[in-house]
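Extended Data, panel c. Modelled sequence:
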Amino acid sequence: MLTEEQKNIHKEFRSYLRTVEGKKGNMLNYLISATEKQLPALLRKHISTDVVCIYDDIYSMAELLACASKIHSDDEILADPFGYISSQSLDAYIRFYTQKHGINIQDLRPKEESDSDENDLHSFTEGTEKDYSGVKYERDSEARKACIKHYDCKCVVCGIDFEKEYGELGKGFIEVHHIVPISQRGGEYVVDPIKDLRPLCPNCHSMIHRKRDNVLSVEKLKHLFEQKHN
């Protein structure tokens, strides 16, 4: 149960996600849920048993950055059933926190950290509008629906069913993975939703693409997952 102060921060954060970052519908609700439930549980499990609610507003930016850095650099934490979405929710909360308190994130980071791992926290400067010219690959929503209809709306690797976990909020939530990345197809092609696509949760989808030069197969990731959990 949130205190009145926490409820106010909840409202401010939700408004920030909606108006500044453009989050809508299920994704907005999913990020809020992760921030208030999965993230504190993840922090208690892997980092500090004292965490109760991220909205306490008692955490310094240094503490938030330290937690985020720990999550991003630890494959075991990211592989937790809610590791990926928790990391995304914490990143979003840090962006909100810096805007709310007028903090320049670069002022808090050592020079060498700013030039380090590309997966580090430089992403907190997202949001600047820039012109972009590049290639965008169109997805067929009907192929997505056919894939989910065939395989069911749950992850084929870890088996999570978001509707079972979250009720109505999670209904219909799943990502669809292209076994052969569209960018490698060399142009327009006819997609077979059964052979070419698989439903994956955000965690497993991210793990498959963790190394851009070595995209894992669904079977390989499932084997790794089963080795860890059996």
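The first strand starts at residue 175 and ends at 178. This feature is highlighted in the accompanying rendering.
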